[in-house]
Amino acid sequence: MAAGAPPSSPSPPPPASQQQQQPPFYELVKGSSGLEKVQLRGARGCFAEIYLYGGQVTSWKNDHGEELLFISSKAIFKPPKAIRGGIPICFPQFGAHGNLEQHGFARNRLWTIDDNPPPLPVNPAIKAFVDLILKPSEEDLKIWPHSFEFRLRVALGPTGDLSLTSRIRNTNTDGRSFSYTFAYHTYFSVSDISEVRVEGLETMDYLDNLKGKERFTEQGDAIVFESEIDKVYLAAPSKIAIIDHEKKRTFVVTKEGLPDAVVWNPWDKKAKAMQDFGDGEYKHMLCVEPAAIEKSITLKPGEEWKGRLALSAVPSSYCSGQLDPLKVLQG
Ligand code: TA6
């Protein structure tokens, strides 16, 4: 309004339908055992859910409302037990050694929503996302004496793909570097493990956790499942496909900053031994876990690492051997 002109009456707000939705595009609600969780609703009804406890994705649904991740019916939503299923974050350690608990402590801590994260270059079409942050408590510093900021962005893309972007910064003020190992311990829901095969890890070297972490080379064709498997594939390709024959669905797993990939199914004996896992549930899950295990990540004070996981679920209308279903789908 020009200076000196009579004040005009404020223009009416645009109709709700035209009002640009304002961030945040998530909802904070109460989940199991009163634990808080964030719900993301993306385009075409896609959905994701993240518990502040553990910063753990526990649900990812497609536009038909189908659940794509596995959560055990016996999962315990009570600290300090990690939630069995979804995408537990293994940090600052993968595995069990030294004085840290198995897979580190990030999945057993309460994360908070990060209202003012440092900018992260993203696809502007992505509206449904949330930023979480974890910093060490005084207790944590006693068992892992390093200051860090762990920022996690969980986002739903325009086609329902799910992405997790981790940024870990060394905030030590004593000049010390630190090293850690890391995994997105992703539990995929499958119709029947005996109907599933994994492509992309053929001929890769792996450490077999069932044989004293001995190093072997994978055979030349897709991995199929007939018994317990617990293998760390080394320097694995950036794309891995999990093909569920019965559902005619392929999960495409894309990883950045994460050289390795763990493949795990406990099978019957181990399933029976886990109190937070149903005896027969091994038939309906498979873990494929983008990770940094063989070579730990070392950060100097002030340095930041970024590790990204992107998941999509596409129709398996293509023959095996072609890892890029989008190419086929457009073909
Ligand atoms: O990722 C495979 C693995 O390391 C297995 O050895 C098994 O221990 C699995 O993780 C589950 O570990 P958790 O501590 O979640 O029970």
TrEMBL record:
What domain of life? Eukaryota
Q: Which residues bind substrate?
A: 84, 102, 107
Q: What is its EC number?
A: 5.1.3.15
Query: Cellular component terms, GO, for this chain's entry?
Result: cytoplasm
**UniProt-annotated catalytic positions:** 185, 289
Sorted alphabetically, the Gene Ontology BP terms of this entry are: carbohydrate metabolic process
Isomerase: is it a keyword of this entry? yes
**Looking at its record, which EC class is this enzyme?**
isomerase
Compositionally biased tracts (Pro residues): 7-16
Database matches in Pfam families: Aldose_epim
Among Gene3D superfamilies, the record links this protein to: 2.70.98.10
* Record region (Disordered): 1-23
User: Which keywords does this chain's UniProt record carry?
Assistant: Isomerase
Matching entries from InterPro entries are given as: Aldose_1/G6P_1-epimerase, G6P_1-epimerase, Gal_mutarotase_sf_dom, GH-type_carb-bd
- GO MF annotation list: carbohydrate binding; glucose-6-phosphate 1-epimerase activity
As its record notes, the protein acts as a catalyst of: alpha-D-glucose 6-phosphate = beta-D-glucose 6-phosphate
Q: Which PANTHER family match?
A: APOSPORY-ASSOCIATED PROTEIN C-RELATED, GLUCOSE-6-PHOSPHATE 1-EPIMERASE
Q: Which family does it belong to?
A: Belongs to the glucose-6-phosphate 1-epimerase family.
Protein name, UniProt field: glucose-6-phosphate 1-epimerase
Q: Which lineage do the record's taxonomy fields give for this organism?
A: Eukaryota, Viridiplantae, Streptophyta, Embryophyta, Tracheophyta
